[in-house]
Design a protein that fits this description.
about 65% strand; about 5% helix; 3-stranded antiparallel β-sheet; Porin; single chain; 1 helix
Length: about 200
């Protein structure tokens, strides 16, 4: 939560320095391609009686956004599968899983006269887990639905192109099972840092 607040504060500073003017137009589409790092929070809950730790991963990210009104867009985030190792205190390496976190957000892009255009968004994340494996037995993780917060800025490099930096917070919690028995809830709740090129059509 502290990281989410920090991300929102950064965007607020960017907005404060921007003068109101040019809008993103209703009916515009944007497509973005870049990389995203999914970085789970430091305390990932208790699994099988021990404190769990889930590592980060970086993958290709893709976004598509349609502007339903000037400055207001609906964005879909997609990515190639992220892979995370799971360790448990007192056990060590406990397994690995892959996941996909498609996220749908409603973003407001602040109109500015300058090249930097900040935005804030809120939406919903769905995370599906697959290809779980563990030396301890058969591991499985439930899929997750949760809140997603998005904050960032576009730096215009041409009339239709921009470099984007953004930070997302995702509420991701998944019940874990080993050999069919529940061993606790993995509290992932990552901050996702992204860098991309975004093109407007």
């Amino acid at each position: 939560m502290k990281r989410m607040v920090s991300a929102l504060a950064v965007s607020a500073v960017l907005v404060a320095g921007a003068a109101p003017a040019v809008a993103q137009s209703q009916g515009d589409w944007t497509f973005g391609a870049g990389i995203a790092n999914v970085n789970p929070k430091s305390n990932n809950g208790t699994l099988a009686g021990g404190a769990a730790t889930i590592n980060d991963d970086t993958q290709l990210s893709l976004t598509v956004e349609y502007f339903i009104r000037d400055n207001l867009g609906i964005e879909l985030l997609a990515a190639t599968p992220f892979e995370h190792d799971i360790t448990i205190a007192g056990v060590g390496y406990a397994g690995t899983t892959k996941q996909l976190p498609p996220t749908l957000s409603l973003n407001y892009h602040f109109p500015t006269k300058g090249k930097v255009k900040p935005f804030l968004g809120v939406g919903v994340n769905y995370t599906t887990f697959f290809e779980e494996s563990s030396p301890l037995g058969t591991l499985s993780l439930d899929d997750s639905w949760g809140l997603a917060i998005n904050a960032g800025a576009d730096w215009q490099v041409s009339d239709n192109g921009a470099l984007r930096f953004n930070v997302r917070y995702m509420d991701i919690d998944s019940e874990a099972f080993l050999n069919g028995a529940s061993i606790g809830t993995a509290e992932i709740d990552p901050v996702v840092i992204g860098v991309a090129y975004v093109h407007r059509f």
